[in-house]
């Protein structure tokens, strides 16, 4: 089978690997679609994502969907040909979480994640024609949800988790700063959860157009001189840019809530944070998701349309070009999708 493998910074290859075979409790997926995430770009450009650095070649991709090609022993309730996506997280070890975070499996101290170099050996992702997956990580797609959209259940789950962290949005005005794919999906998730109005802000007119298509009631183009609104009860910071923190804190109402969903740098940065104290703002972190991937699939089944966030589609053999487009701010890209294939029977070469 073919797989999209990063061997080091700037070294991306389409490698031939043996077709995998499912073991007990596993299923073999014929992959169809994958969405490129910022971490995929980081491994390709820098050989690392955050503190996770490549020690060996790594198959990229954690936003994926396909169809079951075969099941291993002991797998029940799943059938060949079934369209599915994958919950890419697998906690390592069975030690219970402290009671204060019971059930919040995204905060487990050690988690293997598709397409991650956090452990050695690394955890290969799903940008390949086939992938063996634990049956417990499989999530069947509802009727009417395509595998292309199913591949976006993972980033939509990130957005829904952020909205869940914010509490009840019904009837509230919401600010979403940063309208890349996650920010645009936060816009859609906020509207889905009953926000009365969503104001979206960004430096890119293209990103703001996506946010409008995803349901934003108003957009602010910060590069063109627009400013953030005043006294918004609830804000989501989705850019991850330290320079944005001061203005977004100032836009958040006294006693309001700011949910940080954009990844901030792991190194020291300069940011204006005084309003966090003087305005008594609740600043909440949001990391990946727990089981909101199930909520994402139900939301898509019920009409939440993720298609406006998709800007480009490439075949697996053009993965290098796809990553370059996803990494280039001038490309006007939002979510770049890879058509992974999975049409041939395994073992046929």
From TrEMBL:
InterPro entries hit by this protein: ADH-like_C (IPR013149), ADH-like_N (IPR013154), ADH_Zn_CS (IPR002328), GroES-like_sf (IPR011032), NAD(P)-bd_dom_sf (IPR036291)
Q: Which Gene Ontology terms cover its molecular function?
A: oxidoreductase activity; zinc ion binding
Q: Which UniProt keywords apply?
A: Metal-binding, Oxidoreductase, Zinc
Give the superkingdom in one word: Bacteria
Instruction: Please list the residue ranges annotated as the Alcohol dehydrogenase-like C-terminal domain.
Output: 181-295
Q: Which cofactor does it need?
A: Zn(2+)
Q: Which residue range or ranges hold the Alcohol dehydrogenase-like N-terminal domain?
A: 23-143
In the record, the note on similarity to other proteins reads: Belongs to the zinc-containing alcohol dehydrogenase family.
Q: What is this protein called?
A: L-idonate 5-dehydrogenase
- The record lists the organism as Streptomyces chromofuscus
**Organismal lineage:** Bacteria, Bacillati, Actinomycetota, Actinomycetes, Kitasatosporales
């Amino acid at each position: 089978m073919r797989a999209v493998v990063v061997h080091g910074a700037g070294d991306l290859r389409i490698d031939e690997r043996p077709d995998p075979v499912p073991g007990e409790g596993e299923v073999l997926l014929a992959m169809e679609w994958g969405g490129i995430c910022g971490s995929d770009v980081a491994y390709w450009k820098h050989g690392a994502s955050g503190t996770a650095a490549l020690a060996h070649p790594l198959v990229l991709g954690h936003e994926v969907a396909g169809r079951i090609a075969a099941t291993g022993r002991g797998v029940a309730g799943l059938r060949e040909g079934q369209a599915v996506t994958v919950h890419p997280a697998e906690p390592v070890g069975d030690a219970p979480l402290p009671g204060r975070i019971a059930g919040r499996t995204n905060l487990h101290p050690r988690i293997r994640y598709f397409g991650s170099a956090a452990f050695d050996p690394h955890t290969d992702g799903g940008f390949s024609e086939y992938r063996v997956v634990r049956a417990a990580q499989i999530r069947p797609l509802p009727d009417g949800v395509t595998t292309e959209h199913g591949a976006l259940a993972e980033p939509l789950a990130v957005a829904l988790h952020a909205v869940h962290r914010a509490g009840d949005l019904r009837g509230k005005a919401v600010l979403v700063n940063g309208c890349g794919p996650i920010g645009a999906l936060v816009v859609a998730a906020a509207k889905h959860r009953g926000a009365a109005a969503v104001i979206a802000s960004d430096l890119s007119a293209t990103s703001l157009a996506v946010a409008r298509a995803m349901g934003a009631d108003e957009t602010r183009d910060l590069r063109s001189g627009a400013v953030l609104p005043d006294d918004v009860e609830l804000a989501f910071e989705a850019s991850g840019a330290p320079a944005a923190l001061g203005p977004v804190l100032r836009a958040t109402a006294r006693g309001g809530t700011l949910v940080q969903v954009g990844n901030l740098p792991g190194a020291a940065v300069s940011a204006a944070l005084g309003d966090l104290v003087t305005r008594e703002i609740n600043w909440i972190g949001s990391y990946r998701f727990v089981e909101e991937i199930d909520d994402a699939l139900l939301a898509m089944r019920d009409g939440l349309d993720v298609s406006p966030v998709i800007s480009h589609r490439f075949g697996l053999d053009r993965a290098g070009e796809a990553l370059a487009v996803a990494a280039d701010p001038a490309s006007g890209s939002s979510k770049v999708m890879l058509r992974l294939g999975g049409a041939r029977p395994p073992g046929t070469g």
